[in-house]
Design brief:
The chain is mostly helical. It has helices at 3-18, 28-36, 38-47, 53-67, 72-77, 80-88, 100-117, 124-127, 132-140, 146-159, 177-185, 194-204, 213-222. The chain starts with a helix and ends in a 30-residue tail after the last helix.
């Protein structure tokens, strides 16, 4: 099968996903919190690192409950030790996510940056930006975000949150382990570096490379597992086959 056939199938799957109700977590209260609070949304982007998507995006809501507030000025002033205790929890298994110490430093620095540069309001990151590259650049400046998550976040703002940007076609695919695995098995790129995949995405779908992001990630996390691909969906609760089943050169 040609690369273009795979890309076309990815785009069709992406259109199907965009028609479904969006979500960040499996907890309605946590979901409302990150949707309605720009600072919580930004923290969700930061927490989304090496852990399950739903768990990462639920973390801002749980952090608020543990702190008793979600005030950026107060978080910026909180000691690293105290903030780390809140993120870790009191008992084993209560940590908000895997990398407690690293996330503590990222959260504190993000709060400090929001206070000093954006009036303690993350929505100011994108409010005054006319183009997607500006938003990506500003997000990339936060420790713990970087290029991969900056493109992912810009795509979510544009596609799911309805934030309008000029040059939105400059939003590219956010490359992580799931994306790399799918692109390798589907033969979409020989160069599996971040730059290599982003370059290939631009060549394969120049109108909007970012459209390949969510469908690829969803396939990587739902079917194309690291140890063994579940192409026919035999181990899934819904028993649905992978959307790339008929066009992917690697089966089983």
């Amino acid at each position: 099968m040609s690369k273009q056939a795979v890309v076309e199938r990815l785009l069709r799957y992406g259109e199907k996903l965009s028609g479904e109700d969006g979500w960040y977590t499996d907890d309605p209260a946590a979901d409302r919190f990150v949707r309605n609070n720009p600072n919580a949304w930004l923290f969700g982007v930061i927490f989304d690192q090496g852990d399950h998507f739903e768990r990462a995006w639920k973390a801002p809501y749980l952090l608020k409950k543990r702190l008793g507030h979600f005030d950026m000025h107060r978080i910026a002033r909180t000691s690293v030790g105290e903030l780390q205790r809140k993120i870790r929890g009191q008992r084993p298994g209560e940590a908000l996510l895997r990398y407690v110490r690293k996330m503590t430093l990222w959260v504190k620095r993000a709060a400090k940056k929001l206070v000093e540069e954006y009036g303690a309001d993350a929505s100011n990151i994108w409010k005054n930006c006319r183009t997607a590259p500006e938003v990506i650049e500003r997000l990339d400046e936060f420790v713990g975000i970087g290029q991969k998550k900056a493109h992912m976040a810009a795509r979510i703002l544009y596609e799911d949150e309805g934030i309008s940007f000029l040059r939105w076609r400059d939003i590219n695919i956010g490359v992580d382990v799931h994306v790399k695995r799918v692109w390798k098995r589907a033969g979409l790129s020989k160069d599996l570096s971040v730059r290599g995949i982003m370059r290939a995405a631009t060549e394969l779908n120049p109108d909007y490379p970012g459209a390949l992001d969510f469908p690829t990630w969803n396939i990587g996390s739902g079917w194309c597992h690291a140890r063994r691909a579940d192409c026919r969906g035999l181990r899934r609760e819904d028993n649905k086959p992978c959307p790339l089943l008929k066009v992917c050169p690697k089966l089983g």
